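Box 3.1. Reading complex inputs
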Amino acid sequence: MKVARSKWTILIANILVPISILVFSSGFFPYKTLLTGFATHEHTIGGQIPPGVFDKVLLLQADFHASDFVYSQHSGFLFTQRLGGGFLIRSGAALPFTAYASAPTVTMPRLKAITTGSVPSFLDVILNIAEADTSSTLMHQDTWLAQLKAKGGKLVMYGDDTWLKLFPGMFHRADGTTSFFVSDFTEVDNNVTRHIPNELLQDDWSAFIMHYLGLDHIGHKAGPNSPYMITKQHEMDSVVSMVYTALEQEKHLKTTLFVLCGDHGMNEAGNHGGSSVGETSPALLFISPKFQRLETRNDSPTEEFSDLQYYHTVEQTDITPTLAGLLGLPIPLNSLGVFIPELLAMWDHGAKSIPLTSSSGPHRIHMLLENAKQLLGAVKGSFPSYSFEFDLMPVICSSQSLIDIERVQCAWFRVLETLNGSGANHDSEASSEIESALLLFLRNAQKLMSSAASDYDLIRLYVGLSISGFAISLTFFPAKRLLVNFAPAGMFLGFSILSYSTMMFASSYVEEEQQFWYWISMGWVVYLHVKYAGHFHGNSIQKSGPANGHWPFEPSLPWFGAAALAVSYRVLRRWNQTGQKFAAQPDITGSFFPSHQHTLWALLSLAASDSPELLGNSFLQPVAMLTDGMHLLYHARMVLCGISLLMIYSLYAGKARETTHKGRGKWPPSTIFHETLTLFLLMQSKVTNIPAFLVFRVQITILASMRLSTVEQTITSLLMQYVTFYAFGGSNAISSVDISNAYNGIGTYSVFIVGALTFISNWAAPIWWVSASRLLRSSQNREEKEAHVTILTLHMATILMSVMAACTTLRTHLFIWTVFSPKYLYTIAWAMINHIVVNVLGEIDWRLFMKR
Amino acid sequence: MSSTPPSPSLAQGPAAPKSAPPIHILPNNISKTYALIHPVLLLALLALRFNALVADPVAELLSKLPFLALLQVAFVMTCLPPAGSAKDDDKSTSANSSSSSSNAGSTSGVILKPGKIGLRRKNTPKSESACLSAKLIVRLLIKYPPPSSSIPTHPYMSINKTPVTQKAHPTNSQNQKKKNTNKKKKQPAILSLTLTTLLATPVLTILLILFGAPLTTHHPETLLCGAHMAVLTSTALIYVHGVDGSVWKEVWGARRPADAVWGAALGTCVGAWFGAVPIPLDWDRPWQAFPITILVGAYIGYSVGFGLGRTVLFGKRLKIEEEGDVVEAKKVD
């Protein structure tokens, strides 16, 4: 009765795990509503569209224009700071800003921000991993590039081919440079620079984009303080000077706006992706001789600021409406930017050439008004339940404590009020009042919408958390009953779970999670050593229990078994260096094998001949891979077929064997299944990881000789799964997902198959350990198997809940998108696939189903 | 995480001998007082030299190693009964008769035999093979004196140090036999330092590497860290137990009954294990470099284990035995 009930609670707990993941994810990765279609000019209030001040734009983009590179005294940008006798910035020909780039500070999301004006979400980063996924292109989104093209302009692009990926077919002329070779500091940039003189002579383009990669490469390779940096800055500066000279001299470039902007900065180590000040503070410069008329005066070079906020700080998304406005384009629909107020002054002077208006005020106001209406549309799209009709003006605006959306509402009502109040005649006082009201609304709306992108549905987060908490409480008592009976092992497991759970709240421990598993597993080795070395002369060897299953190898290594295990762990630990802090240090796959190719191949052949009864098949595998490349796909499929046939055979043979007679036959079917699976996993692993399976085999042999108790077997299996995952090079960074084996035997892209193969190739070692430990536990009865699943479920549910709790409490943490969210994604994979599919479903005796 | 000279493997007796009882601190005031001071002294030394340790771990570890050895020797000679110092044992005189060959050889016999026969096996038949192998090892050691240049100085230093400890004797004498105490203490001390250098240091270094210390780099750091841990763990163990096979078997299986000596040894190793915890943090502090946290953990673990072993946990053994199997557990419900 009790047994049956605990069985059901475990089942329910395992159903609750995916449910909690679904609920939590829906709150954690909110879907951002994007407006579709393209913006057009509306003619409503005031009836006038501010005319474009420029008709061409020249965008010089370089990774890592961290603002202190451009603006500080130590910068190599001499020309930008100094022009002729005067200074480019001082003369007012360049308007300098610091453009805040929100995380993730990697190129593709940043380009999205610059072109669409929207704030990229974390989902964009995930989508960008699937390169084949075409939904991440910006072809069908409203960008100023699309607006320019719709107006009939031609676009030209040289540099980083991310642009070409984002805008396929958009450019009239283009020469993409891949940023694959990070150690290339010169060629990537020369490939851009060589086109510039020609393009400057052409007058057919209306947007000319240059994206330099050199600074980025130097940053990644040598850091921001490397000697290469200053020379590269001088090189960039000379490009700026060349372009500016052309702007002054060439007639067709008279109305060209030159924008110099960085897509992201870099941290002290030269890397980017996170949200440290260095990474989020790229420079932004608007350059044109026309700006000199504004008579803006800025000091340059300036003092160095520790927070890198030079001049006026704007949002990176502000580039979009500003460019659109200056070029006389409609503002892209999804833009969350605010027209940079300093540049409104362009219409003060530009108005002189346009006789239509008596004063410059209307243009400025119209510009902001258009911006406001566009942003209002975006706000309405995201908050459909709020009304922005003037007649419904609520009284809440007078209260002090307003939530963000209400603040936006009130700001908008204020705008409407001032507009109505001033009527049609704009005197300077009224217009400045309108302007400030508009800007207030714009800023509030921008703040609201930018946070909406990373806004969490807290209720769902808590519901998800409590569901997983409920799953824990379901499993806790059955598991506790088991663990209390195995007090030392239970305490060890409890210690492991507790320390892991607290660890999830520290970003560096999440990054270096492998260290925890190596550390705790060595503790486990000591535990096993103390227990079984003690048994040896504690004369309790009679504890043999039932014959140890089907495991073929069973030498007795009681004395030094644990020591050998420790050695094997040490080898595995160094197999692949992973994580962040020590990732660059030498390891076996990265440093040893490249210089010892023969050793690798010797180990490989050893690994291949390790499963003797299947030698024929395993021999086939390399042959199939090595014969003619034409039919590689076919061969791979054949091997896959052979392997799956063997697996099915082993299952059926098992059934037949059960029904007929026991014993006889050296290789029981379950062993054959395991060996076949091993073969398949070998195929799905990186070549350099294959010899590690030999180490695993040594380990399982030692473990088999130890006669572990039920709980110990479970803990061992658990630890091995995690240890080997990291030993194979896995980590909690999305960049460590290995897709090199995800396409074996597949001709076309299929999300499901590629996904499954990706999982298998990344989780090959854990899968092997699940299967191997299942073999180790093959003598277990039903209760013991249930105990196994109970403990596994408790462990998984606790881990899941601690990760969720960490993501919830640290949702405003600097590293939420770079460390904790990837960890959460990995935990989903661990829970949904490795736990439920591989561990729990693998535990079900499929032969029972076949019998029916 | 036990320090394990290979003697147990040599001395695999068929019988499971009864182990040596937990060790008491010598029951006189000086011993008891110093036993309280000693761990604090070690921690104070560590705290005092911490900045120097962070600045240059290798130089600091190397220069402090003799001091540490000296302190440990002073501690064991002040506070602990040497191997073979049996109060209720008169066979020690018969052991002296075995002194026949060289000077050193004979003294080693003096150290070992009484420990084997008298104190350790009061009521059980002695394990001849263990005794034999122990003697063999010591003979070997004496025949092939330690080749290392820096560390052999410790035995001599300890000899030089003996006049200091001699002062303690009058008080000791109230509780113990007067004659030969100095010699009886000096020789186990020499033995313990020799074995610590030759056996425990390499074993602990290997253990450090197995637990994740860098294998290809940081060799001096690892070796010195191992040496410090060896001095912390093994000096007292060897001084008290000599090369008693059954004791070392227990050490190998980590199931000695807790006392100050074993508690400190186990505490050192557990502390070193926990000392690895702060290393992966991204604080980028200089003290997060490899051997420092491990060593600090070891020192703290030493003191904690020392204290716990003497008091709360005295006489208890680390035991890993499950109470029942799953099926039984279910039945119990």
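In summary: Residues 458-485 of chain A form the longest helix (28 residues).
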